Amino acid sequence: MKNEDAKRRNFEAQALPLIENLYCAAQYMVSEAEAQDSVVEALVKDYSSGHDCEFCPNRRTRLFRIMANSMAGKKCSTAGSKSVKSSDSEVTVPTSAANQEEVAYPALAAIPALTLERVNSVVRKLPDDYRLALILSLREGFSYRQIAHIVGTDLGTVRARLHHGRRLLRKGLFDHIDECASQPQDERTGCQEANHG
After folding, report:
1. Is the same domain home to 47 and 105?
2. What is the Cα–Cα distance from 2 to 86, expressed in whole angstroms?
3. What domain range includes position 113?
């Protein structure tokens, strides 16, 4: 009984601080209810797996892997996952935008139209594999090697997914900026307000 209490305390000390990170990452992949279920399932599976250690340096990676596998299983058991291929359109961005009058890309004046909600909506539109790799890398700070372990693939595949995911994210954000920049100045504020709610 004493060992079980120690195991529970160790697990709580290591896993409970990760709940918010797990939940935020899951929300990019599935609905709110499914995200909650995925986090709970990951915690239960990790606790019941019998890994008993005072400090598990890979607990964070293990929890994300369990959750990623759980979400992948749920997606496959439904209608199947859809794969979206994108065109290879290039977006050129000036390297310095210190003075907006000197910028050759006038859409940069519309950058205030980018809100967290808009960025999140662009991320959610990415194909699942790219989205998961980006979330694990950019939001959670996992290394390429850790991401490969979490998603169960090789390092080259992770690099390719991150490359294509970043390209699609950049294109989606610049498409929104172009859309707002093409509107007259008085309507541009409406574009900004539309993104707030």
Report:
1. no
2. 56
3. 100-196
Q: Verify that 63 and 117 share a domain, yes or no.
A: no
Copy the structure tokens of residue 123.
Answer: 């991320």
Which spans in the chain are helix H?
2-15, 19-27, 32-48, 59-77, 116-125, 128-134, 144-151, 155-181, 185-196
Residue 84 lies in a domain: no
Q: What is the Cα–Cα distance from 58 to 55, expressed in whole angstroms?
A: 9
pTM of the model: 0.62
Q: How confident is the model over 81-104, as pLDDT tens digits?
A: 433 333 333 333 333 333 333 434
Query: What's the pLDDT tens digit per position in 184-193?
Result: 666 555 455 4
135 class by beta-carbon count within 10 Å (0-12 exposed, 13-18 middle, 19+ buried): buried
Please give the backbone phi and psi of residue 7, each rounded to the nearest 5 degrees, phi first: -60, -45
Same domain (yes/no): 125, 168: yes
Q: Is residue 31 within 8 Å of 74, Cβ to Cβ?
A: no
Q: How many domains does the chain have?
A: 2
Tokens 């929104």, residue?
176
